[in-house]
TrEMBL record:
InterPro entries in alphabetical order: Endoribo_LPSP/chorism_mut-like, RutC-like_sf
Pfam families cross-referenced by the UniProt entry: YjgF_endoribonc
Protein's name in the database: RidA family protein
Species per Swiss-Prot/TrEMBL record: Parasphingorhabdus cellanae
Gene3D superfamilies, sorted: RutC-like
Taxonomic classification: Bacteria, Pseudomonadati, Pseudomonadota, Alphaproteobacteria, Sphingomonadales
Location of the Endoribonuclease L-PSP/chorismate mutase-like domain: 9-141
Length: 155
């Protein structure tokens, strides 16, 4: 199957990471009735976790980069599950979880790191509904975790 989206990313110098294996009892993706549900992908770059807490030593820009890394890992999981990013019809919804202090209020700005990258990857099909919430902690101490619901084209 062709993968025009991945070729376009390569032309822009954007490389997808290797899809991460689950760290607990779940699968990375489940396809049901034309929707692909992607399990939460934690912030990771170059095989290393991006840890930290927004509002406690981690800057907004660092949080956005962590969220961007989640977007790239979601795309890697989509490719693994579907064989090609070209099968994406629409990114339907993202759930963005931000490891933050109780008084931190810029969760939507952090989440934009992921949302903006989805549009870079998928164009108009990357525009989506979204929730961005702050949490007291995330698995493995990561800064951001994102899950996704993706409408897919028939094979």
């Amino acid at each position: 199957m062709t993968d025009n989206i991945e070729k376009a990313l390569n032309d822009k110098g954007i490389e997808l990471p290797k899809a991460a294996a689950p760290v607990a009892s779940y699968v990375p993706a489940v396809e049901v009735n034309g929707l692909l549900h992607i399990s939460g992908q934690v912030s990771m770059a170059d095989g290393k976790l991006i840890t930290g807490r927004l509002g406690d030593g981690m800057t907004l820009e660092e949080g956005q980069q962590a969220a961007k890394a989640c977007a790239l890992m979601i795309a890697a999981q989509i490719k693994l599950a579907l064989g090609s990013l070209d099968r994406v019809d629409q990114i339907v919804k993202l759930g963005v979880f931000v490891n933050s202090t109780a008084d931190y209020a810029d969760h939507p700005k952090v989440a934009n790191g992921c949302s903006d990258m989805m549009e870079v990857i998928f164009g108009a099909a990357g525009q989506h509904a979204r929730a961005a919430v702050g949490v007291a902690s995330l698995p493995l101490g990561v800064a951001v975790e994102v899950d996704a619901i993706v409408a897919i084209k028939p094979a």
